[in-house]
Specification:
The complex is a heterotrimer of chains A (331), B (517) and C (89).
Chain A lengths: L17 H7 L7 H6 L44 H24 L8 H11 L2 H18 L3 H43 L1 H14 L4 H31 L3 H6 L1 H24 L1 H30 L3 H18 L5
Helix pairs in contact in A: 4-6, 4-11, 5-6, 5-7, 5-8, 6-7, 6-10, 7-11, 8-10, 8-11, 8-12, 10-11, 11-12
Chain B lengths: L11 H8 L12 H4 L24 H24 L12 H10 L1 H17 L3 H31 L6 H5 L6 H12 L2 H30 L3 H31 L3 H19 L1 H10 L7 H20 L9 H8 L3 H11 L13 H10 L4 H17 L23 E2 L2 E5 L2 E5 L2 E5 L2 H9 L1 H4 L5 H6 L17 H9 L14 H14 L3
Antiparallel strand pairs in B: 1-2, 3-4
Helix pairs in contact in B: 3-6, 3-10, 5-6, 5-8, 5-9, 6-10, 8-9, 9-10, 9-11, 9-13, 12-15
Chain C lengths: L2 E7 L5 H10 L4 E5 L2 E7 L1 E5 H8 L8 H4 E5 L1 E4 L3 E5 L3
Antiparallel strand pairs in C: 1-3, 1-5, 2-3, 4-7, 6-7
Helix pairs in contact in C: 1-2
The chains are: A mainly alpha (331), B mainly alpha (517), C alpha+beta (89).
Protein name (chain A): Phenol hydroxylase
Keywords (chain A): Monooxygenase, Oxidoreductase
Organism (chain A): Azoarcus taiwanensis
Chain lengths: 331, 517, 89
């Protein structure tokens, strides 16, 4: 027997889950972001303390010095839950794929001068390892942070960082083969110009406060590095020297960094608006890690910018300060 | 065309190697021990992380592409299913109680797995396993969210779903799955991988998903079937990671064998105890049955698990001892569990019932050696009592096993007429267990298990009443207060299916589709 | 002999895959169940890109298997051309 169920008009008993309704202030239809995010993390009656961190509960807000009355005040403006996230990235992946195909099929890499190719590889290949470090750090924030609204975007960020490391790898293989990767790795481990940055990354690996780590990695380091490397060096400097192909191969990074900044700024703004103590702490962390990041990035930027590195890093830092002023931080 | 020599095309394995392990390095500004502080304390010895074999070689771009495709399909089906009132096409509204059990008991574990794998992924010094773990962390978030999204529409129309998150952390029987995962996450990263990646994902997950999901298919629940199968496609990757972890650890150092064997023994049993809920779901809660718990155990554990342990024998790994006990229990597990829930139906967030005559005959056929002899008479007696208006709801609180936290309802291996009790004394306190295996798990790590948040103990200690409750007040009703603390709506979420709001609404709505009233 | 198992969703995309696998592995047993197809084989099961491409009439990346995979057992060895499940003993 076929029943046409569409013809039935039913008044639902409720419009969403009770914990979501409490957050919305009323029983009304909720978005998939809201139902997939609110209160997803356990908060009560944990059975055992972690053997790897007996001083804390499994999820424990006191791992951070940032205090929030409610960790679900954070909202990802992109409203990314898993489905929305992967679909957004799949679209970007599609573009990246076309870009790689285009560069490869038209032989655009071969059209670049050998000097430019060398500079591009010297400048970009060690960044594979920086992105890998970012992946580790965002995994940390996701694992040890508190509340799904804050931690969920960090697993997305971690996997994006890995994706970026892999796009850089593909680019290295396209422009220079495996030797390019090896040379980049050697520079990362030994070349003086990269050691400040490597020290920065390794120092963030041992940070225990997930929010400070969030600031050091996503706000300070990536906040300076992406505008400096991808928006300035790649999109302006390399492009003007006949390296437009490079900009095509790193289009993902440029777009990604613009997109994720919206979430980062919203997160900083929410945490700073919560209390003067939070704001003071965020300002202190941001200043400290910004200054270290700027100092570490300057010698790296000399690879493409030579003597102008100082000045450009200065400009990027100024933009950075303006950006965070909008989030309520006086730097 | 130009004469340039084409670049050597790298094979999948080589390419993937550059995309992953080539990214990591040994730190020198901070010591490796500080960067990876949780890598050594469990006593597992790893000499060469590069010996790790990547079973699936998904790079992020491929991951995004394929996963987005799965998500698009899944949400299209969920949307269509909801728009067409698909919930009215399930066999009968009793079926929904399996979904309630799933959302309150399992979906929160998927979320825990997400965070647990993020932790494991951060903890391992090797690039290969770290990436596999992080990808799994992301997948597990997917599972938690697709389940909530697929089941959201049921929540709009039926009871028992509305406080799944709140209940998971509080309700007595949900402390069984919750404590299972809390146990795994609080263990070290290697044990977590053996517990979840291997024992649960590889050995037991098919028992949870395949029968549950094909149960959904048999019972007309397209929404659940779709998220279930879609999630399983990730599980195949996860299972493979679980197996790889075991092989890798065992190949690294002979000293790892006894540790790994102890973990496999422990986690096979821990996982099996959680599956008691699945057993009763299969045998009692699906209106249209797929296969019995016993059959599922035989196919997915004895047959497939048997092949696995035979393969692992070359490392010295043995089939866990508990498999013998499980084989003895397989004729009894679901009947004893359902009997307990029927007793405590007033304190559960789903409905219970006595199987009808057809269903009892199915159970007789599937369990020829046990059902008619031990369980049918009991069910018939309950049915008779209920018909006479004497439906009995147990209001006393049961003794719980300290390890698995299930009420002491299981019988002695080989003697289904005698309840199994074990006990141990630690620092002058007595602890109780449902089995030798749960006792052994406690005895191996008493410091951990004395921490258990046992729902019955917590109720007696007064920790499970709404804030401001005065238990000394006249007419204080402890059960009512506990249910309020659970956010369980008396008369809507609990009690018999017969006469429930779910039953009435489902019948009325189905009636609207077939009649012109 | 130990059993190898591969379970796929039953749909239009997997029909040619199942056919190709069945032809390449004459020892395999194919069991059509509601919404899924269970393939059992002793010891070893090979899924070959070329055979699937012949059935499909288009290029096929073995990683596309992920979309419709439900479960499997055995050790995996994956290259660009072949996806092999086996037990080593």
């Amino acid at each position: 027997m076929h029943i046409d169920l569409r013809t039935v008009t039913i008044t639902p008993l409720r419009h969403t889950f009770d914990h979501v309704a409490r957050r919305l202030g009323a029983d009304k239809p909720a978005s998939r972001y809201q139902e997939g995010t609110y209160d997803m993390q356990a908060t009560a009656n944990f059975h055992y303390r972690p053997t790897w961190d007996p001083d804390h509960e499994i999820f424990d807000a006191s791992r951070s010095a940032i205090r929030m009355a409610d960790w679900y005040t954070f909202k990802d403006p992109r409203q990314f839950y898993y489905g929305a996230y992967t679909m957004a990235r799949a679209r970007q992946q599609d573009t990246a794929e076309s870009n790689f195909d285009f560069v490869e099929s038209r032989g655009l890499a071969e059209a670049m001068s050998p000097e430019l190719v060398r500079t591009v590889l010297d400048q970009l290949m060690p960044l594979r390892h920086v992105a890998w470090g970012a992946n580790m750090n965002n995994a940390s924030v996701c694992a040890y942070g508190y509340g799904t609204a804050f931690t969920q975007p960090c697993i997305f960020q971690a996997m994006d960082n890995l994706g970026i490391a892999q796009y850089l790898t593909r680019m290295g293989l396209l422009l220079g083969d495996q030797e390019a990767l090896d040379a980049g790795r050697k520079a990362w481990l030994e070349d003086d110009r990269w050691q400040g940055l490597r020290r920065y990354v390794e120092d963030t690996f041992v940070l225990k406060d997930p929010f400070e780590l969030f600031v050091a990695q996503n706000v300070a380091l990536d906040g300076l590095m992406y505008p400096l490397v991808f928006e300035t060096i790649v999109d302006d400097v390399f492009a003007s020297q006949g390296g437009t192909a490079v900009a095509m191969l790193t289009q993902f990074m440029t777009e990604w960094s613009a997109e994720t900044r919206k979430w980062l700024d919203a997160t900083m703004k929410t945490a700073a608006a919560e209390s003067d103590e939070n704001r003071a702490l965020l300002e202190e962390w941001t200043r400290k890690w910004r200054d270290r990041a700027a100092a570490a990035l300057t010698p790296v930027a000399t690879i493409a910018l030579g003597a102008k590195a100082d000045e450009v890093v200065g400009e990027v830092t100024e933009q950075f300060n303006k950006r965070l002023a909008k989030a309520g931080l006086a730097l | 065309m130009d004469m340039k020599v084409a670049k050597k095309k790298l094979g999948l394995k080589e390419r993937y190697s550059h995309m992953t392990r080539g990214l990591g390095w040994d730190t020198s500004y901070q010591s490796m021990d500080d960067v990876y502080p949780y890598a050594k304390y469990e006593g597992i010895k790893i000499h060469d992380w590069d010996k790790w074999e990547d079973p699936f070689r998904l790079t992020m771009d491929a991951y995004w592409k394929y996963q987005a495709e799965k998500e698009k399909k899944l949400y299209a089906i969920i949307d269509a299913y909801n728009q067409n009132n698909g919930h009215l096409s399930v066999t009968d509204a009793r079926y929904l109680n399996t979904v309630k059990l799933f959302l309150t008991g399992v979906s929160p574990l998927e979320y825990m797995a997400h965070r647990g794998f993020a932790h494991a992924g951060r903890s391992f010094p090797g690039a290969g396993p770290r990436i596999a773990c992080l990808m799994q962390s992301l997948d597990e978030l997917r599972h938690a969210q697709t389940q909530v999204h697929a089941i959201s529409n049921y929540n709009k129309h039926y009871n028992g779903f509305h406080e799944f998150r709140h209940m998971h952390d509080r309700v007595w029987y949900l402390s069984v799955p919750k404590s299972f995962f809390d146990d795994a996450v609080t263990a070290g990263p290697f044990e977590f991988m053996v517990a979840i990646g291997f024992s649960f994902e590889y050995v037991l997950t098919n028992l949870l998903f395949v029968p549950f999901v094909s149960g959904a298919a048999y019972n007309g629940d397209m929404g659940t079937m779709t998220f279930g199968f879609s999630a399983q496609s990730d599980e195949a990757r996860h299972m493979t990671l679980g197996l790889e972890v075991i092989k890798f650890i065992l190949e690294q150092d002979p000293d790892n064998l006894p540790i790994v064997q102890r973990w496999i023994d422990k986690w096979t049993w821990r996982g099996y105890r959680v599956l008691a809920l699945v057993a009763m779901m299969q045998d009692y809660m699906l209106p249209k049955r797929t296969m019995s718990w016993k059959e599922a155990w035989e196919v997915y554990f004895e047959e497939n698990g048997g092949a696995l342990f035979k393969d692992l024998a070359r490392y010295g790994i043995k089939m866990p001892e508990c498999a013998k006990t499980i084989a003895l229990e397989k004729d009894h597990l679901s009947h004893q569990t359902w009997g307990t829930f029927y007793n405590y139906g007033a304190a559960a967030a789903f409905h219970t019932w006595v199987p009808d005559e057809d269903e009892m005959n199915w159970l007789s056929a599937k369990y020829p050696s046990s059902f008619d002899k031990y369980y049918r008479p009991r069910l018939e007696y309950w049915r008779e009592q209920a018909a006479q208006g004497n439906r009995f709801y147990n209001k006393t609180l049961p003794m719980l096993c300290t390890t698995c936290q299930i009420p002491m309802l299981f019988t002695e291996p080989g003697d289904p007429t005698k309840t199994c009790y074990r006990e141990t004394t630690f620092k002058g306190e007595k602890y109780h267990f449902c089995s030798d295996h749960c006792k052994k798990i406690f005895d191996d790590e008493p410091e951990k298990y004395v921490q258990s948040w046992l729902p019955v103990h917590q109720i007696y200690q007064g920790n499970c009443f709404p804030e401001g409750t005065d238990p000394t007040a006249e007419g204080f009703d402890p059960l009512a207060a506990v249910l309020q603390y659970y956010h369980l709506e008396f008369g809507r979420d609990n009690l018999d299916f017969e006469g429930s709001e779910d039953q009435k609404n489902f019948d009325a709505w189905r009636g609207m589709a077939t009649r012109n009233t | 002999m130990p059993n190898i198992m591969l379970v796929l969703q039953a749909n239009e995309e997997t029909r040619p895959i199942v056919e190709a696998v069945a032809e390449d592995n004459p020892h395999a047993r194919v069991d059509h169940q509601p919404a899924m197809v269970k393939i059992d084989a002793e010891d070893r099961l090979a899924i070959r890109r070329e055979s699937i491409e012949e059935k499909l009439g288009r290029p096929f990346d073995l990683q596309e298997l992920h979309i419709n995979l439900i479960t499997l057992s055995g050790h995996i060895d994956e290259t660009d051309d072949e996806f092999v499940l086996s037990w080593n003993n």
